[in-house]
Specification:
- The complex is a heterodimer of chains A (287) and B (331).
- Chain A is an all-alpha fold and 287 residues long.
- Chain A has a single domain, classed as MetI-like (MetI-like fold), CATH 1.10.3720.
- Chain A contains 9 helices and no strands.
- In chain A, helix 2 packs parallel to helix 5, helix 3 packs across helix 5 and helix 7 runs antiparallel to helix 9.
- With 331 residues, chain B is mainly alpha-helical.
- A two-stranded antiparallel sheet of chain B has the order 1-2.
- The chains are: A mainly alpha (287), B mainly alpha (331).
- Chains A and B meet through helix 1, helix 2, helix 3, helix 4 and helix 5 of A and helix 2, helix 5, helix 6, helix 7 and helix 8 of B.
């Protein structure tokens, strides 16, 4: 080997080493932020956690005492509306895409637009519901908040239903149809059953996503300082209360905001772990 | 003829029962199909409705200000003058900073996860990186405002101002008081938020590269880096760009985190250390307080602009990613 070749060889090895070290460093860098953010949320959240959090409503300024009970109720109501509207429609649309429009043009267009809706800025979805509902009716409401979140649930459920139904082997379809079972029964009672674990995963992920959504609720559900379960009135939700409290100058409100942040973060992490678990388990049984 | 009518209502021969049943099944099938189709149409309607309603809501602003809405830096609720230049500038700059930081880091993560990491490490590490995407943006915002921005203001920005602020050309970008909140902070927070999206797309498309291509390159004596740079990246180029655009779409529309750390200031400044505003943050901050119809209409018009821009970016992303899916043989 000539001297030139040795240098070339060493140079290539050095570049390779640098690139691989940088790659590992980038991964550590990404995990570092995850660790930092979770750590801060845990520490600040736990110090603010108290027994009153779930039993008392949001306090007036300067925010000593009190809890987030009304906000938890509000989030429960608004998220339930979102799931009640978004999940059936999403499953229906997903079934249509997978069973009736596998290769069609309209199916392609809807699949394409659904993927765009999946990443569309959520604040614009809030504006949409504001213009068609809040402005027409004349007041903010829990219902409007739920519908705005349903628009976020919808594309997630459509996508997972579509993909999970596509994974069902076509022999199962053919076997069922050859027995003379009508197609709606094939889809609902055979194919859907086999894809159910995946669809549930999608629903859990959608719930995780909307539990932390703030932007679309700001001008649909608005906020409410008091205990309210009226669907046609403004309602407090955890993310919006966190937003309001965190940007306030009061220390008591800040503490409550951190406590709320801790609760929704833990909730969301639990949901995503749960959905992973269901998916990995269903994979084993499906094959 | 009473006899024939009763026999039609209550079928007693097997053949008649069969016909009745078949027609009922056919009717149910048609009904089922229509229900599903209308669900699918709702997806279409949601997207078109969002475009149409924001355009309709913003018509007052578009009509009054015309093209000047896009280029005016006035934003004054008292005089009723609204222009979108500052929010547009803020949105583009923060997203640009986010992309400059997130793309190389995401590439590094994808490189690590597909070529370097031992196989037992891959699944947990990529799950952890994806957890970053699950954290709600309001948590990023609070962390950014209460922890990260003060940290930057105390330890990083004074140094940036001293060392980089005097450089020719780019110096103006880094000069300013160390407030902590501002475009650079927002850009960094956005970068952290989009890293999981970009890196998971990159990892997935890197895995689609046929093993024999890579092995051929290794057999010719390539190093790992040369295989990634000369084989994997050219093979997946369009999908990688698609993943970057997907991240860009997220960054452009991100609301809460940016609202916390950007400062909501309606001023145009060259310095990245200064507070600014983005389209989404202006809407989040001002919408419920906008009393005049013109103010509200201008905010909805901003929403329309944001939606159109992200639509285009995401559509490009999707098309680029579809290209790879076809070649990868999954279609």
């Amino acid at each position: 080997m000539s001297a030139d070749n040795i240098w070339l060889y060493r140079r290539r090895r050095a570049i390779n080493l640098i690139a691989l070290v940088l790659g590992a460093a980038a991964t550590l860098f990404g995990l570092f932020w995850l660790g930092w953010i979770l750590w801060v949320t845990l520490v600040k959240g736990f110090t603010a956690l108290g027994p009153m959090l779930f039993t008392h409503s949001t306090p007036p300024p300067p925010g000593a005492g009190g809890g987030l009970a009304n906000a938890f109720l509000g989030s429960l109501i608004v998220n339930s509306i979102a799931l009640a509207v978004g999940v059936p429609v999403g499953i229906g649309a997903g079934m249509w895409l997978a069973e009736y429009a596998k290769h069609g043009k309209l199916g392609g267009v809807i699949r394409f637009l659904n993927d765009i809706l999946l990443s569309a800025p959520s604040i614009v979805l809030g504006l949409f519901i504001y213009t068609i509902l809040v402005k027409v009716v004349g007041h903010f409401s829990a219902l409007a908040g739920g519908l705005a979140l349903a628009l976020i649930v919808l594309p997630i459920v459509v996508r997972t239903t579509d993909e999970m139904l596509k994974l069902v082997p076509s022999t199962m379809r053919e076997a069922a149809l050859s027995l003379g079972i009508p197609q709606w029964k094939v889809v609902m009672q055979i194919l859907f059953r086999s894809a159910r674990a995946g669809v549930i995963t999608g629903i859990l992920l959608a719930l995780a996503r909307i539990s932390g959504e703030t932007a679309p609720l700001l001008f649909t559900a608005l906020n409410n300082q008091y205990w309210s379960s009226n669907l046609l009135k403004p309602i407090a939700t955890v993310p919006v209360v966190i937003f309001q409290f965190a940007l306030s100058p009061y220390a008591g409100w800040h503490a409550l905001a951190w406590a709320g942040a801790l609760v929704i973060t833990l909730f969301i992490l639990t949901l995503s772990l749960l959905s992973r678990l269901i998916l990995s388990r269903s994979k084993v049984t499906h094959d | 003829m009473p006899d024939s009518s009763t026999s039609a209502a209550i079928p007693n021969t097997p053949a008649q029962r069969m016909i009745l049943r078949t027609t009922r099944d056919a009717r149910n099938d048609r009904l089922f199909r229509w229900v599903l189709l209308s669900c699918a149409m709702l997806v279409l309607l949601a997207l078109l409705g969002a475009v149409a309603s924001t355009l309709w809501g913003g018509r007052l602003a578009f009509h009054t200000f015309g093209w000047k809405f896009l280029v005016s830096d006035q934003w004054n609720a008292v005089t009723g003058q609204f222009g979108a230049l500052v929010p547009i500038w803020g949105t583009l700059m923060t997203s640009l900073i986010a992309m400059l930081l997130a793309v190389p880091i995401s590439f590094g993560i994808a490189l690590f996860l597909t070529e370097v990491a031992p196989s037992w490490m891959r699944a947990p590490v990529s799950a952890a990186v994806e957890l970053l995407a699950g954290i709600p943006s309001i948590i990023y915002g609070m962390w950014g405002l209460f922890v990260f921005a003060p940290f930057l203001a105390d330890h990083v920005y004074p140094w940036v101002n001293d060392k980089l602020g005097h450089l020719p050309l780019i110096g103006a970008l880094f000069r300013g008081p160390p407030l902590g909140i501002g475009m650079l902070t927002a850009g960094i927070v956005l970068a952290i938020m989009v890293i999981p999206f970009i890196s998971s797309v990159m990892r997935d498309v890197f895995l689609t590269v046929p093993t024999r291509l890579k092995e051929s390159a290794y057999a010719l004596g390539s190093t790992t880096w040369e295989v990634v740079w000369n084989i994997v990246l050219p093979y997946t180029r369009s999908a990688v760009v698609g993943g970057i655009f997907l991240g860009l779409g997220r960054a452009l529309g991100e609301t809460m985190a940016v609202t916390f750390v950007l400062g909501n200031a309606h001023q145009l400044s060259a310095s990245l250390l200064m507070p600014s505003s983005s389209i989404a943050s202006v809407i989040a901050n001002e919408f419920t307080e906008a009393v005049s119809p013109m103010h509200q209409s201008s905010l909805i018009a901003l929403g329309f602009l944001l939606f159109v821009v992200t639509f285009i970016v995401l559509a490009i992303a999707k098309l680029l990613l579809l290209g790879l899916a076809r070649r990868g043989g999954t279609e």
